[in-house]
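Subject: Sanity check before I submit

Could someone independently write out the structure tokens for this chain? I want to compare against mine line by line before I put it in a report. The sequence has 223 residues.
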Amino acid sequence: MTDLIISILCIISGLRRGKLMLPETANADLKAERIELMAQLISDVRATAIDSHAPEEGDTNLSLGVTAYERTRSIIISKAGTPDFEWLSVLTPDGRFTFRIGNTPVRFWKGIAEKLPGSKLIRSEEALRQIDFEFHDEPINSLIWYIIIETGPDKYVDRAYLIGFTEEGIKHIHWEIPLKGKITKLNSADDSKAPGVEIESAASKLRRKEKGKENGENDVSHE
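---
Independent answer below. Compare away.
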């Protein structure tokens, strides 16, 4: 029922197939310039991590992923509330790292947009409280928001997306964020290539859980 309500609200808001829209049409906090600034920040931080990556000194793809993630998390924390980032705050600094754009919780992840693991749709406790307090009666604003970056063969950011998921993994908002002057559009769920996300297997969950006991949970993905 919630998915149906959100779909209807998307249509009412004008998020129709092929029509160029801005993300704030779906959520007033998610102004295009804010999303673009965050995506560029994530992209730039990743580029510096790649530039300092030294396989000849023992660096691996895993260490690159950890470095890029931790540097990104740290820079978001340091930028929150500063000039040009007054609208940015940190909701969950550790674990399921979550920042806020305005009052809206957002996370970031590196990987294929259509393959976000189902475990990533679990909100942090702080995000749950925020949603219950701010958006309990506004289904479209209770979507789980992600900035997702996809990388090319050189490991630099090739594409970036703002995606709004339901708790069931259905994509209702899928916007390619402009990077380096690219023109993009905001699509409703009907335009998505896939109706949901890739659900993590039981074996993968077990391996992740065992690893998490040693390292703690974060959003690092394999390079």
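---
OP: Matches mine. For the report I'm noting this point. Confidence is low (pLDDT under 50) at residues 1-20, 181-211.
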